[in-house]
Write a structure and sequence with these properties.
There is one protein chain. Helix 2 packs across helix 4. Helix content is 42%, strand content 14%. It contains six helices and six strands. The strands form two sheets. Strands 1-3-2 form a three-stranded antiparallel sheet. Strands 5-4-6 form a three-stranded mixed sheet, with no helix packed on it. It is α+β, with helices and mostly antiparallel strands and 145 residues long. The structure holds zinc ion (ZN).
Length: 145
C-alpha cells in the first residue's frame, strides 16, 4: 500500500492556504504523473468538481513560486505543470500535439544525468538545474499524418 500523502500539511508548510481547490490541484498533478497545461488540467479537474480558470491560475502560480510543483515551458511556448516525481524527469514531447510522455524506465539517461549532476556539484558551488527534452512525433499524431 502506498503511504497516504498529507496534502494539507504539504501546502501549509509552504505558507499557503490549503483550500479545497489547492488540495485537489496538487493531488491531481501527483496522480497524473505527467506535465499538464493550465487548460488540460482545468478540463481534468472539472470532470469531478468545478474550479474556475482564474482560481486555477492562482493556485498554479503559488505552487510554482513555492516549488511545490514544477513548471516547464514546451516548444509551443505553453507552460506545463507537474508534481516532482523524483527520478521521473525525462519526457518525450510530441511536436504536434505537445503531449508529454515518459521515457522508458530502462533508459540509461537518468544514470548519465545523475553523473553529470554529481560532477557539476563537485565543481561548481552555485545553483544549477539540468533540463532535458526529447522531441518528435508521438504514435497517434504519426498515424494521422
Ligand atoms: Zn502527438
Amino acid at each position: 500500500m502506498k503511504p497516504k500523502i498529507d496534502w494539507e500539511s504539504q501546502i501549509r508548510e509552504k505558507g499557503l492556504r490549503a483550500t479545497k481547490a489547492a488540495v485537489l490541484v496538487l493531488k491531481t498533478l501527483q496522480q497524473i504523473k505527467k506535465p499538464l497545461s493550465h487548460d488540460e488540467l482545468l478540463e481534468r479537474l472539472n470532470q469531478s468538481s468545478s474550479i474556475d480558470a482564474v482560481t486555477l491560475y492562482r493556485v498554479l502560480d503559488r505552487f510554482t513560486q513555492t516549488s511545490l510543483i514544477e513548471r516547464m515551458l514546451g516548444s509551443d511556448r505553453v507552460s506545463r505543470y507537474r508534481y516532482p516525481q523524483g527520478d521521473h524527469h525525462e519526457f518525450f514531447e510530441c511536436d504536434s500535439c505537445h503531449q508529454h510522455f515518459q521515457l522508458p524506465r530502462s533508459s540509461p539517461l537518468p544514470i548519465l544525468l545523475d553523473q553529470v549532476s554529481h560532477q557539476l556539484k563537485s565543481q561548481a558551488s552555485g545553483e544549477f538545474a539540468i533540463s532535458f527534452n526529447v522531441q518528435g512525433t508521438c504514435r497517434s499524431c504519426k498515424i494521422i499524418s
